[in-house]
# Entry
Amino acid sequence: MTLAGSPQSSDGGAGNVGSGNVGSGNVGSGGDSSVGGADLAIEVVGVTKRFPGVIANSDVNIAVRRGTVHAVVGENGAGKSTLMKVLYGMLRPDEGEIRIGGKPVTFHSPSDAIAAGVGMVHQHFMLADNFTVLENIVLGSEPTARGALNFGAARQKILALSKTYGLDLAPDELVENLGVGDRQRVEIAKVLFRGARLLILDEPTAVLVPHEVDELFDNLRELKSEGLTILFISHKLDEVISVADDITVIRRGMTVGTANPHSITPRQLAEMMVGSELPSPQTRTDTVREAVVLSVAGLTVADADGRDIVQDVSFDIRAGQVFGIAGVEGNGQSELVEALMGIRPAKSGRITLNGADLTRQTTRERRLAGIGYIPEDRQRQGLILEGSLWENRVLGHSDSPPNIKGPLIDRAGARRDTERIVREFDVRTPGIDIPALALSGGNQQKLIVGRELSGSPVLLIASQPTRGVDVGAQAAIWEQVRNARAAGLAVLLISADLEELIGMSDAIQVILRGRFVGAADPATVTAEELGSAMTGAGSAAGAA
Amino acid sequence: MTTSTVAETAAPAPRRFSRTSPSLLLVVAMGAFLVLSAVRTFTGGYDLTSSGTVAAGLSAAVPIGLAGLGGLWAERSGVVNIGLEGMMILGTWGCGFLGYNHGPWAGLLFGTLLGAAGGLIHAIATVTFGVDHIISGVAINIIAPGLALYLTKVTFAHYEGGGQKQSPPINDAKAITLPFSHWLHTIEDKHWFAVSDLAGLIGGVTTRLSLVTLLAVLVLVGSGWILWRTAFGLRLRSCGEAPYAAESLGVNVYKYKYIAVVVSGAMAGLGGSALAISAHQFRDGQTGGRGFIGLAALIFGNWRPGSLAAGAGLFGYTDAIQLRSSAAVHALLLLMAIALALIAVWQWRTGQRTIAVVALVIAVLSVLWFADTKKVPDELVGTTPYVVTILVLALASQRLRMPKADGKVYRRGEGH
Amino acid sequence: MTSRDDGTGPASQVRIRAGLVNRLRQRYPLRSVLLGFAAPIGAILFAALASSAILSLGGHSPGDVFQTMFKQAGKPTPFVDMVNQAMVYYLSAVAVSIGFRMNLFNIGVEGQYSLAALGAAYVGGQLTGGGPLHIVAEVVVAVLVGAAWAGIAGVLKVYRGVSEVISTIMLNAIAVGLGSYLLHKLGQSSGNNIQTKPISSSGQFPGISYSGTHSKIFGFLIVAVVLGFAYWFIAGRTRFGFRIRVTGLNEEAAVASGVNVKRMTLVAMLLSGGVAGLVGLPELLGQTHTFSQTAQSGLGFAGIAIALLGRNSPIGMALAAVLWSFLGKSANQLDFIGVPREIAAIMQGVILLSVVIAYELVRRYRLVLQQKDVAAQLATGEPTERDAPSAPVVTA
# Structure
């Protein structure tokens, strides 16, 4: 299926595969698991799943023992989510099979998976906010009596579940009144209500604050002691090591091995996860200059309900300096960034850029003053997915050259500059007229980085700049940021990837519940120290 | 335990009013009734609460309420249906087509079926093809009147008693009168505060009550029961709140949306039929925007059947009152001012100062208008439902809660 | 996937042979252009089929019907009529499409133009003399009234989060009542009818003669054409137009990129309402010179249909307006062969419904093709690359 006349196609490349579904039940991948199926809750044998241009899973093998917590770890984009969707019947594998209790099963839909005792707790909660806890839990498998929904029976069963597994549910509360941890317990209850014996939890801790994580792990141990099996997907290694009985590591869509959580260190696990070619984010040469570019003093930001979500934060970023902010998601980072960009008003405090007061300026004025912005969610905030690449080049820069001619958009100029970005930042695309949504995540992100580094900004605000991109794109993005830093760019870096944060930053502050709680010296601090400082457990790690 | 966890860690969800309890509704209804009595006594607008007005209001409310109910079914499943007007038109024509020689009930059935057919088209466009709900609704509103008139010309125009724009007459549906209702009329004529008003209210409901009206009430109650008390209803509503969550639990979202939208069309068709029966024939342009008023009643009723019925009742009532007495209409201004003042107080207390002031200003203007004139121009009375809906949206919108995924195009398997 | 145009080949090759033809082909690949036409043509064919079926069921010959309609359209008087009607439709469509570009659904063009026409007629009737300024005053009043009425919906949307669909539906109905109230208040009776004081000759827009008929093409055509150009230029070429487009496609990205979305929403609503205010003017200034209850209604909904059919493009909407007007006007002749003219409304509705379905199908098909292109590019770009499956198959 390779194109005639495409010169570089040397071997029938892994990527160039049609989207054709090979159907399910394509068994016959050799190596029948020798372990008896009896004590295995679920087995994944040789599962391969392809998408146009991408192989998301390639010959994945996992064996999960009954009554254990089994972790599947891998980087963002390693193919974990695809695997979970295959396990839950949301996607059909192109090759390979899934066995439950030793017998091969084919799931055509989540209903089949549910019927087979497999339940899924999604990373993004699948809850109806305007329904009660009870309604959310029973939906799809409602007990009925004389044609009507039997609320009494449902309530009893839920309370019983709640008691058995320590889930602490209030059946008649509206879900929208619940906190994140409670919502997650509702998700778990949904699965248990359907009689699931195997629970898949997809990145369950991503949205939790530390003590909620502890509560979740208590729940998981409770479930395990009742004989349930848990498949736990994560890329947070210390959590995995603390809760899992077995670990399977996947990398680039393939299983690369298993590990024993009692003997492995996070470092070793990380190496398994990323492989030997781990690109280093190091920026050791010192490029920090004297001039302060961004100065934030006493910044407080309120959320929609009027509560202070960022409190009295002050810091300076100098030219040529990368200033990192470490913190568990949801501790005010997003709001801080939005306040700096003028998307969200500052309640009090002062923001100055090269001495000019920006506090009351609009987003547009701040951008014109030389702030580049890589938003944390590129598809939601960083791109017009239906727009062409060159239009996306203009996005956020529709008031400055090379995109404009007076009040007009300079199409030719914008197109030329887009070609430049595509070239310099290695954006893999057939052209600049295709819509951004046709690109892969990594290439979308490279386009954004290229755009935000154009027009010689003085400050770059980079929120999760390499989230969900492949290793190659990650290295490229780091390289570009490093170069800009050497040229005197000030960078505010916010990342959940602590290696990235430590490697790239010249200074780090830890944010917790909207406050800066301590500084860390990236030259000496370890990811472990930083991690515990983020949870408020450790004192400020490696005092700067 | 749960609450303390929430309080410490996550953002406590914004304060929200609990679901309106029946007892609260009762108190509000009684309060409104007393105010109405007082206004009636004070202004002498006797028709405000006369049994004649109430009866007329009730029959005017039926088509509106049924259209609103159609909206409720569709929107609870997440499909916005502004094609209600068109489906209603199909219903009026259908009722005329079978009604004139097979009686009102055959007409009603056929009208309902045609409405359902309109709903089916809307479902195909929005659910199967993922077309924007508003666009599909607009298309249906363009097709339906044309189709009805076309069909009228190829059918009714050749029938005795029919015409280019109307059907031959349809017989009336049976009506029932309860034996004690003439007593009530006696009490009503005394014009005692509250007592006579109550007599008028009950008298209006129990005198010559059409079986169609009774059917509409049954449909309303039945819809409420199905949507809120059965597993089917829970699933249907889940498609309007969180379709991808429903999908992840094995609910066939397409199926429920289809059912909901077809039922929605059937309700609108039924409403159209009720209209045709009460007018004793099909006429071109008969619906006169009642499909849209139904939509207004749905919003006014916050997407719930009980308050939807109250909205339809209110709009039907203003419709009736306009035909009966200009003094009564005039009194309505005062009523509106009182309602606005109440909103102003409530908004002030919830901290929405600007809105409270705006509400108060409009209230004062209404009072001034009331004091300055003897009569509200007829042309403006017909706009009451729309003005009320706009005011509710503008001044009390935080009380409104439409289904969360309402109007969003759902594609299977494209959730996260 | 066998033969494809050069545009998708390796970038280096294209750059070397960057002739004009190649660039055009790259920007507008044949496939894409054909796909673009497939939808409306398919929809029209489907509508012809559907209406043929309805006609046959009613015992009429579709062939006769279509023949009568085409014959009618060729005669001078009906032709002028058709052009005039198309112009009005076009203005309405432009008004609607300004909203569409911002993801705003201005269903209220109906109410906006009727109040605006009333206002313009009243002011025009009060003024005398003043030459061209008389006309300018009328136009300005119409634009202001239309914008103000739409502005209510805009303010409700921006400050109270009220869906403009709902508020404009309500405002339409209120406009009907308010309009007839004001007409009674401001108008004078003439026979059975109440109308505003007729506009004197200086406030009338001169028409354009057309050979073979006494009917004149409304001079307002010039305004419509200029408006079309202005719309094309502002929407497609200016920074303001770009901000509108960005906001319509992704509001959050627009905010992050520095667009003041609230202000843009209000501005777009005002602009849409302002243009809507013009809808009633061609007829008012070119023919009736007075506003009465018999003024044309339903133009707002036609505008929605035409904007959708023409995909918000000035040329597309012009073509769609002509089609709409052709169907509506030529159908009048059908009464003479015993076919109800309402068949035209059915055709219009069916075209609208099938065209939006067709556009949707084409959009999805196009996306699949583009993803294949990108996949091919990735494969040839670096054979061993196994790119991260960030979003498996992009969801639209």
User: Anything to note?
Assistant: DSSP finds 16 helices and four strands in chain C. The two ends of chain C are 23 Å apart (CA to CA).
